[in-house]
Amino acid sequence: MTDLTTLGIAEAGRLMARGEITSVALTEAFLKRIEAVDSKVHSYITVTADVARLAAQQADMEMRGGFWRGPLHGIPVALKDIYETAGIRTTGHSHLKADYVPSIDAETVRRLKAGGAVLLGKLGTHEFANGAMTADQPFPAVLNPWTLKHQPGGSSSGSGAAVAAALCMGAMGSDTGGSIRNPAGYCGVAGIKPTYGLVSRCGIFPLAFSLDTAGPMAWTVEDCALMLDVLAGHDPNDQASAKVAKVDYGAAAQRPIKGMRIALARSWYERDDASITPETKKGIDEAVRVFKDLGAIVEDVVFPDLWGYHVCGRIIISVEAHAIHRRDIIERPEKFGYTTRRRFQIGAFFSAEQYLSALRLRRQLHQETRAAMRGYDLVMMASQWGPPEPADEAPAIFHFLSKPSLTMPFNVTGQPALALCCGYGSDGLPLSIQLGGRAFDEASVFAAGAAYERATGWRSRRPAL
């Protein structure tokens, strides 16, 4: 049998259902691998070995008795360390929360546990899902498992790295301006930012209330769909939570995509002021060919300028993040990492008029994006401009001033967006595309992404640690 840690969630679930493997064996394999290789990657802040072993034993006992909780029953997962966990410290990768132990679980954690998932531990993140990983923070910076010489992207850094390095089967991230899709792209895994309001944020450290979105990351698109099956649903304790009909995302990942219409947002990533690398462009062009071979219709469509989404999102994030952290920034600035502190402080310099103008622009961009998508099921584009920064390079305090973010459009509009691997560059690092869908139509996003993965061989390649 193949190494248990390289199984996907769907495949492991089928094997457990047939009694060919156990959750205990699966969990022990991951705990052993974490002990052996995570000292190189630094993806975990806290490993909950005892908690995981007890949950795995319970899962096996339940499945032997004929009780099946769903697609995550007995599956080892991990959490970005901004998800509150009862009795387990939740640090936000910050000195301010280094010893914080919540008394209750975040709603998403409760749903994962109710679905039978096994919690392996808590994962590294950019401080409070902002800033960057720097030497003045309490935990080591997470490294990209493909080279260990590059950053993994953020802010869900540990989530992307742990999934890629086969240190968990699935992980939870959060996405306010691309923080699921950036590490998913740089680490060569699948990660989805669901529609704003589809997944509860209750019990997750906030960054910007009007943009924060929680979502899963996994090795395959199908595995992300199975995780979202457990996570999605209304939560009355989250004021932004939406009431929508239940969807079987796992089944949607098996749908054919013949006749699906995809709008290629080439104007977003091939620009006069910025452009993706030639290898990334080649990967996207080849992905277009694959989608056409699968029966989809792919056409170039012009969308509003990328800088508009970028500026709009950055103003909203800066102002709302400063409002959340204002007291600590004033009273205990030395407790923050230098880069995090500066990024939170910039929010104090925007006026109420500028913030309201950004909110009005957001509405306009939302309407114009919907109009550009009329007649199309999905938008396709690049996930990032090129490879990640070297791990030893000092992070730019205001990195967002150089190029517009390729992930921000779908945060501004609230639409679902998936990052998935579309090949590898000559440096061995993954390439990635984005698929954006209409609001609450994650089913079409999963259908296209999973069909693409089945038609290509990218999921057979893993980082060598």
Automatic annotation (TrEMBL):
Keyword annotations: Transferase
| Top-level taxonomic group | Bacteria
Enumerate the Pfam families for this protein: Amidase
> InterPro entries given for it?
Amidase, Amidase_CS, Amidase_dom, AS_sf
- All copies of the Amidase domain together span 26-445
Q: Please name the GO terms that the record assigns under molecular function.
A: transferase activity
Summarizing the function annotation, the protein's role is: Hydrolyzes indole-3-acetamide (IAM) into indole-3-acetic acid (IAA).
Write down what this protein is called: Indoleacetamide hydrolase
The species is Enhydrobacter aerosaccus
Q: What is the lineage of its organism?
A: Bacteria, Pseudomonadati, Pseudomonadota, Alphaproteobacteria, Hyphomicrobiales
